[in-house]
Design a protein that fits this description.
Elements lengths: L5 E2 L17 H6 L4 H14 L4 H13 L1 E4 L7 H12 L4 H7 L1 E2 L5 E4 L4 H7 L7 E4 L10 H14 L3 E5 L2 H5 L3 H15 L3 E5 L8 H13 L4 E3 L11 H18 L4 E3 L7 H14 L12 E3 L2 H14 L12
Parallel strand pairs: 1-3, 2-4, 2-10, 4-5, 5-6, 6-7, 7-8, 8-9
Helix pairs in contact: 2-11, 3-12, 3-13, 7-9, 9-10, 10-11, 11-12
Length: about 325
């Protein structure tokens, strides 16, 4: 890194918000996905895109600014959430940041269940870090529809700055795109001015073609972000799924002029994986999407491994994982 001090990129919304559009079934049904070509493209990325030394450290710092630091466990407590929020405020040890010449680094958001919004909001007061709440019967999305809509409203009132909703997978599996669109519009309306991330649960959608079509419908319905997974499915974020979703984002931007965010979630726990995802975003969507208002990692353990890699960059030695506890 340079000797001069730099302020890290901070999460902020600087894009016109996606208002959605009328459901275009011709566009949705025309969306296809060539699995063999997609898998070949995804397989080449990890070995072909490698950054080292100062460049790697810079990319890892970028990754930290794009993390939604997450706890979604049945045994969550207010104390655990407060510890997580303290880590969100200071994601890397001050001595390491000083050695790297970085100031003001923070994560993109803290993601919790509805009951943990209040302690998270209190712990993050004054930091500018938003609280993201999972909603709409997370993770299955099978509670009664009026309750799912009401849950969004309660989370917004409790202070959530972002809402991560789960779609009804059956609408995708049955090809009922009108029902999915209407659902997305209702969720978007319930969020009001609060930004909404649509979780597709791609591991349960059957095909990459379904992933492409569901991505388009959710964006037409007004999603600000599309997100791969709840983290609770058997298969979560993968590079082939990510390629399909971000190409749908690119297509939507070319047609509508609105940029939609992307959030891979579940199973991303290693720094090297974060670098691969960042490289994919840069190649497919460009530098503008490498900012926290358009790209997030849904992760709970990724930050710890990134901090270990940064310590190795600064000191030349790896430390044990417990020196970089998340909460």
């Amino acid at each position: 890194m340079t000797e001069t001090s730099h302020t890290a990129q901070l999460p902020q919304v600087s894009e016109p918000r996606n208002p959605g559009m009328a459901l275009d079934l011709d566009w949705v049904r025309a969306a296809q996905a060539n699995r063999s070509a997609i898998e070949r493209r995804a397989a080449t990325l990890p070995g072909r895109r490698s950054v080292k030394k100062d460049y790697q450290a810079a990319w890892l710092l970028k990754a930290i600014s794009c993390i939604d630091l997450t706890t979604l466990s049945g045994d969550d407590t207010a104390a655990r959430v407060r510890r997580l929020c303290a880590k969100a405020r200071q994601p890397v040890r001050p001595d390491l940041l000083q050695a790297l010449g970085i100031e003001g680094l923070r994560v993109g958001a803290v993601c919790v269940y509805h009951d943990m919004i209040a302690p998270a909001v209190a712990a993050l007061e004054g930091s500018g870090i938003p609280v993201a709440a999972v909603s709409t019967g997370f993770p299955a999305g099978l509670s009664p529809f009026p309750l799912r809509v009401a849950e969004i409203g309660e989370s917004v009132k409790a202070g959530a700055g972002e809402i991560d909703i789960v779609i009804s997978r059956r609408h995708v599996l049955e090809g009922n795109w009108q029902a999915l669109y209407d659902e997305m519009r209702s969720f978007r309306a319930a969020c009001g001015t609060t930004h909404i991330k649509a979780i597709l649960a791609t591991g349960e959608l059957g095909t990459l073609r379904n992933v492409a079509r569901a991505s388009l419908v959710c964006m037409m319905g007004g999603a600000d972000f599309i997100k791969t997974s709840t983290g609770k499915e058997a298969v979560n974020a993968t590079l082939p799924v990510s390629l399909v979703m971000i190409r749908a984002i690119r297509d939507y931007h070319e047609r509508s002029g609105y940029r939609i965010g992307y959030k891979p979630a579940g199973g991303i726990s290693k720094a090297k994986d974060a670098l691969t995802y960042l490289a994919l975003i840069k190649e497919e969507l460009g530098d503008r999407w490498l900012q926290p208002d358009l790209f997030r990692f849904g992760a709970s353990s990724l930050l710890g491994d990134i901090e270990r890699q940064l310590e190795h960059h600064v000191t030349g030695a790896y430390s044990v994982a417990y020196r970089h506890a998340i909460g």
